[in-house]
What we know:
globular, 4-stranded mixed β-sheet, 8-stranded mixed β-sheet, alpha/beta
Amino acid sequence: MKHQPETGLIFLKLGGSLITDKTRPQTPRVDVLERLSDEIASALAARPGLRLVLGHGSGSFGHVPASRFGTRQGVHTTEEWHGFVEVWRVANDLNRLVLAALQSAGLPALTFSPAASVLTRDGQIIEWNLAPLARALDAGLVPIVYGDAVFDTERGGTILSTENLFSYLARQFPPVRLLLAGIEEGVWADFPNRTQLVTEIDPDSISQIASSLGLSAATDVTGGMASKVQEMLSLAQACHSEAFVFSGMVPGQVRRALLGERVGTRIAAGQSPYIDRPHNLD
């Protein structure tokens, strides 16, 4: 049974490229994490009715061993299972840093580890007990999920991105907004030249820019920008919501996005009833 939609429920992803240096293995951006945590806390304080599910990427923590061991494609040999554990370990290490920053900012955040609760079949989620996460939302807490290694009935093991997790969650907890905060200003029509920012993507326009979306500038085993945009468009259509891809490197941008301001690139199937009613940003 689907959980009843929450008033003002938002999904926010802090991208791996935003909270880590993806060019240097296991290198967090601690100062950025602290600032983002303060922005999230400020937004929640300014809008008490807002409910938030927070996700984060693995960046230079999980993507490096995942690429080395080919974990997303499947896990079968002893070496691959050791690699599976390594992916889980470093993803968990980063999550602890994220959790610590959020809690230092006064947020009642707690982690729901995908490795311990999600089962997939050929990369698609088939089991996930969401009752505890629903209770957390009802209590006004901030659930955290993140890209992680998970067990798979066909592949042995695989990796789910935060977008994969959001896609499943959104069908049970429909959000009004999905926010993807990274280092790019939005979606570029000419990546990596970055001279033409796309302000709006819908089912009619996606085919015109799909070939130019490209992959991530650094190691990303979950597909880079092209797969993120496709998944967010499908999700926005299914949930009658909207997604925004924007830069979290701009101070205050995450707070503004949480409070209803239009930022970066909007991905949706139609006009938004939400962004036309901006909240007080003071």
